Structure formats: structure tokens, C-alpha cells
Amino acid sequence: LLFYTARTCKPEYNNVVNLAASRKLTELPAWQLLAEHYRAQPFELATMFAQDPHRAATLTAHCGDMLLDYSKNLLNAKTLRLLVELAHERDMAGAIARLFAGDVVNISENRAALHTALRAESPVMFNGHDVTVDVRRELERMRVFVTAIRDEHKITDIVHIGIGGSYLGPAFAGDALLAYAEKSLCVHYLSTVDGGVLQQLLARLNARTTLVIIASKTFTTAETMANAHAVQSWLAAQLGSEQAALTQFAAITALPGEAVAFGIARERIFEVWDWVGGRYSLCSTMALPLALQVGMEPFDALRAGALTADDHFRSAPFDQNIPAILALLDVWNTNFHGAASRVVLPYLSGFTRFPAYLQQLEMESLGKHVTTDGAAVDYDTGLVAWGESGTNGQHAFHQLLHQGTRLVPAEFIIACRANHAYPGHHDILLAHALAQAEALMVGNTIGEPYRVCHGNRPSTMLVLPEADAFHLGLLIALYEHKVYAASVIWDLNAFDQWGVELGKQLAGRIQPELLPQARPGTHDASTIALIHHIKTIAGRPL
Ligand code: F6P
User: N- or C-end of the chain: fewer Cβ atoms within 10 A?
Assistant: First the structure.
């Protein structure tokens, strides 16, 4: 196995066994056929639709009552056949089986990635132990806690302190499921270390009716701990003692001992495990603020939706398998059409934070430059994922999508039924989503050059019956699996994130150097000059 030492981030080889398909991606027969196929075709959507009257029906897939329409992509039936062949040559089926079996798919950290066990209904054995027993125990403890807090009506505000995977999932899902929310409970998220936000928030809160959750798998993340200590001091000042302050806390962590050392009561500490990646953890106790906000029932429905997606990923043939198709589209658009980014456009209520959620899931997972055995890749990986919800983007960046010079595949997410009391608004939203996809494809050749849209711009449409809790869970898990499927094709570890470590280490060194009189350490000339400049302007002696 290949391990990276936490200190140096350099690979150390220990009985190297390549768990991924053994041949280089670009040498695989299907890859070479795809390259030939790409060169031989113009991939004009208008022509391809004219030539194939069934195209709109055939280039679709279903997961239960959810539809994926990818007919507006720059591919044809042969492309799909070759992409599926590529998935077979990459042993995607074996890779999926290994994920669900709890094999060490995160080889640089020697860990499994068993987020599917968080919603599994049958036992999942890992290291000789059924981990679903642990999951059920922690979720049951969470259920008791959530019910008590919601029934007692003593807490009015919840401050959830966490960052990355320890906040993006519950924050996004909380917005998306606002319809279920308990109106008397207000959930605030403190993620980045923003003293201004902290100050404004604390000024509005009543310490006696505020519950503070520290969410950190490692219980060491700098921003989270800085926010946690600041809130703790504020609580102590408001309530008159450290002890009183600590009674307002709960924690979610993989290291309960650290939370106990912080002073949090053991019965208020909820566990996650190192076999669940932070960005894949929404179905775990990481959803505590979400469950407090919307209740356990919607959370259970969300987990049921995720389980449906798990079953689909495991069993659907690849040409009907939504995560596999989405991954293959990313590979096709990245490595053959040369796309550098993909815009994600949820025309759905409460999906404002979805692009940020997806950015962590996709870009921390697929932003990698070496294969699972440590070799440099000779192809592009990980598209930049970005986007905006509703029609906001139409009045901002869609201009570039329609008339810019870059190819930016668009991914629309819509729901057939509204989940609120304004169906008229929902129809406007739907009409705009459909119109944008149509405009990207058909374009407009009439008028002066500046009016012309060439069209033939690819898009994909994910269609939910309704954006309720079940379908939210379904959608999230389909994206989780899409990321894994893409990592299998690109031969990447989708579960580590070593690229973020260097910046953390440097910040730890620079922070004390900003103090008055502190000497700057060894840095590049630009960083030293900036430290000097900041201290001079801030009036801190050098
Ligand atoms: O720095 C990146 C990261 O490690 C993410 O992967 C993770 O979700 C986040 O930081 C928070 O980590 P923790 O839960 O340990 O505070």
C-alpha cells in the first residue's frame, strides 16, 4: 500500500499493490478509440437530433422517479458505447464493489470510505465489526437529543461552528429543506474565521438560549477552534463562569476525547468516524444542526433517498447509471472537448449554497495530479465546478455561456413540482431553465454579429419530481458516487486532500510573525515584504 506521511506529504511505499486498474488511462483501447472518434466527428447537436429522431428519449437515464437528460451533450450513441467500454476497462464494477465493501480506497491515508454505511439497512462489516451498529447508536443518541431540544423550547438559536465538510452539507440542506424548518429555532453557521461576522452574531444572541455545536472530525482545524474559543469566552462572560459556558456546548467529532478535553459533556458528543470523509458525511451525526432545524423525519427521508442512489449506483448498467454517466460526461468534456469548468445551475428553491457544497465534494476529491500509485497523470483531471441558483446567473455570467469563446458545459437541476406556496414563481423558474438549455443548444444566427449566438453548447438536465428531503438525499448521493466514478476513470484518490495541508502549515508559521516585534521567518521575498507592509500600516512595531 501507498502511504503519505502527514508531516512531509511525500509518498512512502509499503508493499505497493495497485488497487486501481493497472494500465495507464491514455493507453487503454477505449481511450484511443475515443480520441479517434472525437477527431472524426463535428458533434453538431442540430445534425445529431435531425439524424436520430429517438435521441431525446435514448440519451436519458432514470433513478427511480428522477430523470437525467443528457441528449444535449456533444456526443452520440457510439461515444456512449466507447465511454461505457472505458468504464469497463477501468474495472468500474470492481471499484464500486470495493467502495461498498469497505476496502481501503483512500490509500494515502489507509482508510475506507464507507459513507454508504451511514444509510445502509443491512450489516456492513469493516475490520470484523458491523459499523451500521455504531451508526444506528449515534443517530439514535442524536434523535433523543434533537427531540429533547425541540420539545423543551428553551433553545432559540444554534451556532454551528465548523468548516468544509463539517458545515457545507448541513448548511446547504438546511436551506433546501426550509419548508420543514422549526420556526422558533434559528441556525447560524460560523465557518471562516471572520471576526466581523462573529461580532455581529454574538451581539444578537442570548447566551442562555443558545446551543453551540463544535463540528470537527479532527478537533484541530484552526478556524473552527478559534471560533469555538471566542464563543466559549463570550458565553463565560455572559453566564458568569467557564462551567456554565460549557453546558451550552455539543460536539460532533471523530475524536471524542478531544471534545471531552475541551470540557464538553460526553453525552453531548456525537461521533463520526475516520472511515467517513468530511465532504461525504451529511448522512451522519454531522447533520445535527440540520436535524435540529427540520426534525429527524426529513433527515430520515434524506438518508432513504441516499440509500436509493446507492442501490442504483451498485446495480444499474453503466449506460443507465446516472453517477457513471455524469462522470463519463465530465471525462468526455474535459479530456476530449477541452472544457476546464462545468457550470452547475440549480433552478430550485433554497439551493443557494449548493454550488459551494458541490465545489468541496468535487474539487477536493478530483483536484489531483497523481494517480493512486503516485505517478503523474498525463491528462487533465477535476473540472472547476461553479454556479449559481435560480435565474441570478442569467443576469450575471450567462452572457459568457452563450457568446463567450470558452466551452462551458452546463448542468441544470430542476424539479417538476414546487415545494412552496408560489407555483407561479416555480413555473417562471422552470421556463427559464428550459429556455437557457434550449438557447445554449439552438443559438440564434439572425441579426448583426453581436446578436449571434452560435449555439451547440452542451448541457445536461437533472429532473427531480420535487426537491423534497428524499430527493435531496438522492441527488446528493448521486453526486457523491459520480465523484467516485470519475476518480476511478482518472485513477485518483477521491478521499484525501493533501493539497490543502501546505497552506495550513504556512499560516501557522505566519500568524505569530504578525505580532508586534516578532521577526519574520524564512519566506519568499514577496511574503516578507507583505508582512512588513501590513505591520507598518497596522502600526505594529517590526
Ligand atoms: O482542510 C480541508 C478539510 O480537511 C476538509 O476536508 C474538511 O472537511 C475540513 O477541512 C474540516 O475538517 P475538520 O472536520 O477536521 O475540522
Answer: C
Mean confidence (pLDDT) of the chain: 95
Return the bridge partners of 385, or none.
342
User: Is there a contact between 492 and 327 (Cβ–Cβ < 8 Å)?
Assistant: no
Are 288 and 250 in contact by the 8 Å Cβ rule? The answer is yes
Mean pLDDT of 508-530: 95
Q: Which of 416, 142, 159 is nearest to 303 (CA)?
A: 142
Asked if pLDDT for residue 11 goes beyond 90, the answer is no
Cα dihedral 62, 63, 66, 69, rounded to 10, equals: -30
The pLDDT tens digits of the residues spanning 288-326 come to 999 999 999 999 999 999 999 999 999 999 999 999 999
Q: Count other Cβ atoms within 10 Å, centred on residue 363.
A: 18
Ligand 1 is surrounded, with C-beta below 6 A, by 163-166, 216-218, 221, 224, 278-279, 364, 497, 500
pTM over 0.90: yes
d(CA 220, CA 259): 10
How close is the Cα of 417 to the center of ligand 1, in Å?
35
Q: Which of 217, 299, 220 is nearest to 468 (CA)?
A: 299
What separation in Å is there between the alpha carbon of 278 and the centre of ligand 1? 6
Expressed in angstroms, the distance from the first to the final Cα of the chain is: 48
Q: Enumerate long-range contacts of 45-49, CB under 8 Å, 24 or more apart.
A: 45/72, 45/74, 45/441, 45/455, 45/456, 45/458, 46/441, 46/442, 46/455, 46/456, 48/76
The confidence score (pLDDT) of residue 23 equals 85
Contact 427, 361 (CB under 8 A): no
Half-sphere exposure of 536 (CA within 13 A, CB side): 6
Cα 226 to middle of ligand 1, angstroms: 14
